[in-house]
């Protein structure tokens, strides 16, 4: 899927060696039926370590009888979600998301037909979904090729590691322009640098 991106990124002095070290980028688009679950997962994961987020998400899934749907989530009481480990804020975010999808205020099945900017606008209208969560959806659910989450801590650490010095978010954004139009796979390689600490 990322063949053209790899061809271009291999020439980059920073990402090229990472492609050789970590192999092909593993990002693949989600199936439409998984968009809702992806967003619930993304909200759950906000400001948590991967392990903690996974545990809470699995509890929510269990509470929904093994399958997370807007209908099932909508029926759960806040206290039931709290028992899974979600904060009150995240409970309200997830319930708002379920309500919007059920009422078709958020037309989740057509997100893949919209531009990156339109997807961001639609998602950010949901309570608790900010720029970062919307960017994660663009990258990991829609596999859009040119997303760069400049505010992500892992991305910042990856850049600092590559450059062997700290630079501001603004400079990171500027630096990453060298990877256009394939900043999504470039980001994946930056995360790999940190994952393998």
Description:
The protein is mainly α. It has two domains: 75 residues, Endonuclease Iii, domain 2, CATH 1.10.1670.40; 110 residues, Endonuclease III, domain 1 (Orthogonal Bundle). Helices cover 59% and strands 0% of the residues. The protein has twelve helices and no strands. Helix 3 runs antiparallel to helix 7. The protein is elongated and about 50 Å long. The two termini are 27 Å apart.
What labels would you give this structure?
197 residues, mainly alpha, Endonuclease III, domain 1, 2 domains, 0% strand
Question: Can you describe this structure in just a few lines?
Answer:
The chain has 197 residues and is mainly alpha-helical.
Element string (H = helix, E = strand): HHHHHHHHHHHH
Number of domains: 2
Number of DSSP strand runs:
0
Tell me the strand percentage band.
under 5%
Biggest sheet details = none
Which residues form runs of ≥5 with pLDDT under 50? none
Helical proportion?
55-70%
Radius of gyration over all CA atoms, rounded: 18 Å
Q: What's the CATH architecture name of the largest domain? A: Orthogonal Bundle
Q: How large is the count of helical segments?
A: 12
Mass-distribution shape: elongated
CATH class of the largest domain: Mainly Alpha
